[in-house]
Write a structure and sequence with these properties.
With 342 residues, this protein is mainly alpha-helical. The protein has a domain of 234 residues: A middle domain of Talin 1, CATH 1.20.1420. 82% of the residues lie in helices and 1% in strands. It is built from 13 helices and 2 strands; from the N terminus they run H-H-H-H-H-E-H-H-H-H-H-H-H-E-H. Strands 1-2 form a two-stranded antiparallel sheet. The longest helix is centred in the middle third of the chain and has 33 residues. It is globular and about 60 Å long. The protein starts with a helix and ends with a helix.
Length: 342
């Protein structure tokens, strides 16, 4: 019955599109409809990823989920750059890393309970996040110490972006090699074919991107209505909403007992944002009318470093434990308070 309800709930996607482009609904209505539409899309991406992982193994399955799930994040960021909202972009990307590594990983451990995780795969990805934070200090520190021009910050940002992309390729190739032979097994009889799984992932990702764009454009007015400032909206609400599909997918998969795949999704998604989405948006912005520098605020880099450190502590033993999930989720709530106060 629950599956039938979720399949039927996919109808919210055309409803929110019609409300936006046909009926010109107000921002609050669009926000609520878009949020409702993202929930079944999250389930669909999680469902398709789990079926794909039957053929590829949890490591590759987590990579597929993170890749498809982060496509809306990339699209949303480019829309914000085009609207000359660089602080929103940086805040949402930092918040995305933190929410994946603390909130999603934590909730996945809570729902999954005791279970095995691939510490070796996660270790390299967590190191990549920490390395990204270190590299991002290059364009960020000059902004903290003085008032450099945007041209100077952009000049410092370009080599950092290139280095991050190279790091992403190296880490991804290494992890895919680790998982290529060790994890592949016989899929269950009822599992979707790999082609069908990828097709549903693609359809759900396109729909998620469209719905997320509508929701993000309604967030500013919604934030004003409830009295939230731009940074908090970007770092918390936009970050969570922009990744709602993969967030929900990881939790659903963890609840079914597949802690290895769920933790791969959470950490891989955070790593992809830090090491791929951040530099990709910066480099793509070079051909746009507005450019994005990688000069992050201290609280943004500090919370990303904190998330990476805690994730390493709870995953190094190769086991998922429920109390560790509560710890990560609790720290995320503290981070949200810090974002609000900042």
């Amino acid at each position: 019955m629950a599956r039938r309800i979720l399949w039927a709930s996919l109808a919210f996607t055309p409803v929110v599109v019609a409300a936006r482009f046909v009926f010109d609904a107000n921002a609050t209505t669009l926000f609520v409809l878009a949020a409702l539409a993202l929930l079944p899309l999250a389930w669909l991406i999680g469902e398709a990823t789990e079926h794909a992982a039957e053929h590829t193994g949890p490591g590759v399955g987590g990579f597929l989920n993170a890749s498809f799930g982060n496509a809306p994040e990339l699209i949303i960021s480019l829309f914000a750059v085009a609207d000359n909202l660089p602080n929103v972009v940086r805040g949402s990307m930092a918040g995305s890393v933190v929410s994946n590594v603390l909130l999603v990983l934590g909730v996945a451990m809570i729902f999954g309970g005791e279970g095995r995780i691939d510490a070796r795969s996660l270790r390299w990805q967590i190191v990549a996040i920490a390395g990204a934070v270190a590299l991002l200090l290059v364009p960020s520190v000059p902004r903290w110490a003085g008032d450099p021009s945007e041209d100077v910050l952009l000049f410092l940002s370009i080599p950092v972006a290139v280095a991050l992309l190279v790091t992403y390729v190296v880490i991804t190739v290494r992890n895919l090699r680790i998982h290529r032979e060790a994890e592949r097994g016989e899929p269950r009889h009822e599992a979707w074919s790999l082609r069908k799984s990828i097709a549903w992932l693609a359809v759900a990702t396109i729909a998620t991107a469209l719905v997320s764009e509508i929701l993000v454009h309604s967030l500013e007015d919604f934030g004003h209505a409830v009295g939230l400032d731009q940074f908090f909206i970007a770092a918390v609400i936009v970050a969570i909403v922009g990744n709602a599909a993969e967030h929900g997918g990881a939790v659903v998969i963890a609840h079914r007992g597949n802690t290895e795949l769920a933790t791969e999704i959470a950490v891989t998604s955070g790593m992809q944002v830090a090491v791929f989405v951040v530099p990709a948006v910066a480099l793509i912005s070079l051909v746009m009318s507005h450019h994005l520098t990688l000069a992050f605020r201290p609280i943004e880099l500090g919370t990303m470093a904190l998330a990476a450190g805690l994730a390493w502590l709870v995953t190094r033993d190769g086991r998922s434990q429920r109390w560790e999930g509560f710890l990560l989720a609790g720290v995320y709530l503290v981070v949200v308070v810090a974002y609000f106060l900042s």
